Amino acid sequence: MSVPERPFTDNQVMGKTILPEFPGDEKRWRMSTMEMVHVVFLNNGSVQKITHCPEGMSFQSWFNFLSRSTVDRYEPLSGGRGVFRFEPGEIEDLNRKALA
Predict the structure, then answer these.
(1) How many domains does the chain have?
(2) Which residues does 72 contact at the CB level (< 8 Å), separation at least 6?
(3) Which has the closest alpha carbon to 54: 69, 32, 74?
(4) Cβ neighbourhood burial of 6 (10 Å; 0-12, 13-18, 19+)
C-alpha cells in the first residue's frame, strides 16, 4: 500500500479554496513520512493480526502495550480494523521497550 504524498489536500469548490480540517496538530497529520501499525480485529474484539509485532510477543499483548504506551496515536477504522500512527523511529523504540 503506497502512502499519498499529501494525506490531506485543499479542495476547490466554486473557485474558492476550502482548507481541510485537522484533528489536533496539523503538522503531525501533514507528515508523509508517518509510519503505521495496522490492526485487524476478530468479531469478539480480540486482535487477529497486527503489524510490527516483536518476535515472541502475542498480537494481543503488542496491541495492549501500544494502547497503554501511547496517547492520541490510535485511529479506529471500519470493518474491524484500526491503525496506530507514529513518527519515524518510534516503532523501533517501542519494540525495544516491549521486549525489555
Answers:
(1) 1
(2) 24
(3) 69
(4) exposed
Answer whether residue 41 is part of any domain. yes
User: What is the per-residue DSSP string for 28-90?
Assistant: HHH-SS-EEEEEEE-TTS-EEEETTPPTTS-HHHHHHHHHHH-SS-EEEETTTEEEEEE-TTH
Among 73, 41, 43, smallest CA distance to 59 is for 41
DSSP per-residue letters across 1-18: -PPPSSSS-PEEETTEEE
pTM check: above 0.85: no
Name residue 75's beta-bridge partners.
Answer: 83
pLDDT digits (tens, 9 = 90+) for 20-36: 666 666 666 555 678 99
For residue 31, what are the contacts with CB-CB under 8 A and spacing of at least 6? 87
* Domain interval for residue 82: 35-99
